[in-house]
Amino acid sequence: MLEIKNLHATVDGKEILRGIDLTIKPGEVHAIMGPNGSGKSTLSYVLAGRDGYEVTEGDILFNGQSLLNLEPEERAREGVFLAFQYPVEIPGVANATFLRSAVNAVRKHRGLADMDAMTFLKTAKAKMKQLQMDEKFLQRAVNQGFSGGEKKRNEVFQMAMLEPKLAILDETDSGLDIDALKIVAEGVNALRSPERSAMVITHYQRLLDYIVPDVVHVLSKGRIIKTGGKDLALELEAKGYADIIADAA
Amino acid sequence: MAANAQTIETVEGLAGEYKYGFVTDIESELLPKGLSEDTVRFISAKKGEPQWMLDWRLRAYKSWLRMAKEKGEPGWAKVSYPEIDFQDIHYYSAPKKKTLKSLDEVDPELLATYEKLGIPLKEREILAGVAVDAVFDSVSVATTFKGKLKDMGIIFCSMSEAVREHPELVQKYLGSVVPVTDNFYATLNSAVFSDGSFVYIPPGVRCPMELSTYFRINEAKTGQFERTLLICDKGAYVSYLEGCTAPMRDDNQLHAAVVELVAMEDAEIRYATVQNWYPGDKNGKGGIYNFVTKRGACRGARSKISWTQVETGSAITWKYPSVILQGDDSVGEFYSVAVANNAQQADTGTKMIHMGKNSKSTIISKGISAGRAQNTYRGLVRVMPGAAGARNYSQCDSLLIGDRCGGHTVPYIEVKNRSAKVEHEATTSRISDDQLFYCRQRGLSEEDAVSTIVNGFCKEVLQKLPMEFAVEAQKLLGVSLEGSVG
């Protein structure tokens, strides 16, 4: 599914990712953990192709195809979804309008006909119910006036509608209370299938109680310093990052 | 940073090619260039006008000569262009065949043009609820759905016809809202106006359909001087749509239209415009000069006039649809979206003049600038001493795309009554890289992302448009900004 090879990337000329190797197979969920400034969000932006995040070395293969020459929208249509740490507000644009454009852009790329308004509404309402979101969110402007938790839930809702092959969740747990966390995790788990993979970026082990990863990586200073099973997250929680980083050094 | 530079490049790319750049080949009757008393007489004679109309025009012409000599063109707007040579303009052109009774008599090529523009002249669209008074160049060639309106006592015809058939109404109201000597361009229009639309809604009648006129400038170097007069009598209601596109031209074309609205007691007029004239090329060559005077008078108590405009075209837009709130409890509204891309210049806004007690006005203006464009909101809210309890709310938002354009807000507020309440809010924002990336990460192309964000920014205004126009306007915003981000 995803193969990251010796990935180096800079932002404003400063090297943030310094040789990352990572392979995610279909159906797997990988957790990326690490302290602030370790490069977790940079990794997610580089994967999504954000302007200003420059790959200086290495490659990213998605189902065998390099992503490096693809525009962000092309990567999205190929099935790469990024749930933002800070979802962006788009005043005046109804969530439903925005999402339907997105769904149809992806469908078009896959050679499918546009989803008509009725089917869209029906599908959206079903997914919202699953995420315990009020249907009113469809008519509200994208993320505008949403609480932190509502924004995160909206990200997962969009993900559920777009059905990506690779979902990257960037600190989706931050700002969520425990009930919301469970609901969001259920939403993510509902998408788990042998064909889909996920990369879950988080500071805390807490989220991983609900989205159980197959593999856990620890990121520090732009490199993966340790990889293990789900127990690694527990070890991190108990010992703290400092010890693990010291151990690895 | 790379992100910004790229954004700007994209914004510039969005300029796009003008999509309606075609010219119809219909023989027209063209008056030689130049303006003199003879020009005015020729136009009047050509239309078979009565003496009083000719006299009115000549008075206007004399006033205009004086204005031209004393002050010349108004210079206070934030626009710049080379001085116009008023002797280098054609003041009259008309398709040769005219006064047709049915669509069958209309030149097929003309119909094909309308079709290209998506003008609903055909039966299908008429049934959809739009009666069209199609103005092609200067003469109305087809007026549809008159019969049904006539039965209700509604008059919807060309101005030339109104001068002949309803002289008492024209004499009573023409120039009563925009006086002959109002301003340089309006005065010029009064002297040489070619044609336009006339609407009269009798007392208590609710016009059952959206009335609609499509304007189109087609003859090279022909000034377009439309004159529209719309009267809504006591307790009547009308919604009027005006939309326009024009063929691609190299030379600047002057357009100086005048629109007058009169609302009597308890009457309501909604007037919506989508303006998409040729804006000139990327470097500012060509394009329409759009110097328009639009004003409505809320004459009666509880009357209401609402202007909604979506302005995306023209090289220069100089336009301030206004309302004079004479009646007690009268209401004036102005909802505007103005897009200026590349080298376009827009100086547009409104004037709300409160005279009646408890009169109320609302101004919502959305200005979008891209490329090297300059976009100015200029608005006046004046509360006269007698307008006790008057209220105004103004909101002016500017959206900038790239870093070489300008958005300006110039509000004038004059309050002469202590019980009045006037509020003004203004914001300026940019399309952020965050917003663009977010949209693109969801699969939208950069152009669709810009179009989506811009449409969201303008939502409050677009919602005020009649259904038929809303969709068209949304598409238009996308097209107008195509290539503005890359």
Largest sheet of chain A: 6 strands, mixed
Structural class of chain A: alpha/beta
Strand content of chain B: 25-35%
Question: What is the distance, rounded to the nearest whole angstrom, between the alpha carbons of the first and last residues of chain B?
Answer: 15 Å
- Summed up, the helix count of chain A is 9
Number of strands of chain A: 12
Overview of the molecule:
The complex is a heterodimer of chains A (249) and B (486). Chain A has helices at 40-48, 72-78, 95-109, 117-130, 148-162, 178-191, 206-210, 231-239, 241-248; strands at residues 2-11, 14-24, 29-33, 53-62, 65-66, 80-83, 90-94, 141-142, 166-170, 197-202, 215-220, 223-228. Chain A is of the alpha/beta class and 249 residues long. In chain A, the strands form 3 sheets. A 6-stranded mixed beta sheet of chain A has the order 6-9-10-3-11-12, with helices on both faces. In chain A, helix 6 links the parallel strand 9 (166-170) and strand 10. Chain A starts with a strand and ends with a helix. Chain B has 486 residues and is α/β, with parallel strands linked by helices. Chain B has helices spanning 2-13, 37-46, 51-70, 108-117, 123-127, 146-151, 159-165, 167-173, 184-192, 433-441, 446-457, 459-462, 467-480; strands at residues 28-30, 93-95, 130-136, 139-143, 155-158, 197-201, 210-216, 227-232, 237-245, 253-255, 258-263, 268-276, 288-298, 304-311, 316-319, 322-325, 331-340, 345-354, 360-369, 374-383, 391-400, 406-415, 421-430. In chain B, strands 5, 6, 8, 10, 11, 13, 15, 16, 18, 20 and 22 form an 11-stranded mixed beta sheet that branches. Chain B has a 10-stranded mixed beta sheet with strand order 4-3-7-9-12-14-17-19-21-23. The longest helix of chain B is centred in the first third of the chain and has 20 residues, at 51-70. The relative contact order of chain B is 0.12. Residues 1-26, 96-100, 120-132, 135-144 and 214-222 of chain B have low confidence and may be disordered. Chains A and B meet through helix 2, strand 7, helix 3 and strand 8 of A and helix 1, helix 10 and helix 11 of B.
